[in-house]
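Tip: read the tokens left to right.
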């Protein structure tokens, strides 16, 4: 994650996945697998954990010690997601366009407080890799936990919408 000037702010990396599973993701499709992404600051200190359970159109955002910030969940309409705090109360929503590349972030009052955009990186990169780039723009001061959920939204959306390459379940028992 970089700021507008290109300064590194944090790194995100999927954890708890074998090298064999990672290699197979480039070839086979099965988007139902559980995913866990650890976000670390520039000093390598974990700051967020973003998890998508198996076969779910939702992600949970927590601290490294397990305290829940909230979740991002599809609300029944394609490209629309509700942002919930740790007690399951709505704090905002994401409304995507038909290509699922641009998402308005609305607070509970319906104000457009931020924008999450998936950047185009070229046909080859889009089709042949899982490398994606997002931009998050805040238009006003946003309180926590909404702000944390907005920062986590690109990873959560990516896990729910685009990271569908995975190895079939019958390979789960094989060692890496």
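Filled-in amino acids:
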């Amino acid at each position: 994650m970089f700021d507008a000037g290109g300064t590194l702010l944090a790194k995100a990396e999927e954890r708890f996945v074998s090298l064999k599973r990672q290699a197979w993701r480039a070839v086979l499709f099965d988007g139902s697998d559980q995913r866990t992404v650890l976000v670390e600051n520039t000093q390598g200190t974990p700051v967020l954990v973003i998890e998508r359970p198996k076969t779910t159109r939702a992600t949970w955002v927590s601290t490294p010690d397990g305290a829940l910030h909230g979740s991002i969940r599809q609300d029944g309409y394609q490209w629309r997601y509700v942002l919930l705090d740790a007690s399951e109360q709505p704090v905002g929503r994401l409304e995507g366009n038909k290509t699922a590349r641009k998402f308005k972030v609305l607070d509970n009052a319906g104000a457009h407080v931020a924008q999450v955009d998936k950047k185009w990186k070229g046909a080859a990169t889009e089709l042949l890799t899982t490398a994606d780039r997002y931009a998050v723009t805040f238009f006003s001061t946003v309180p926590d936990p909404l702000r944390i959920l907005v920062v986590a939204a690109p990873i959560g959306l990516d896990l729910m919408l685009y990271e569908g390459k995975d190895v079939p379940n019958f390979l789960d028992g094989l060692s890496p």
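Residues 58 and 73 are 4 Å apart (CA to CA). The chain is about 15% helix and 35% strand.
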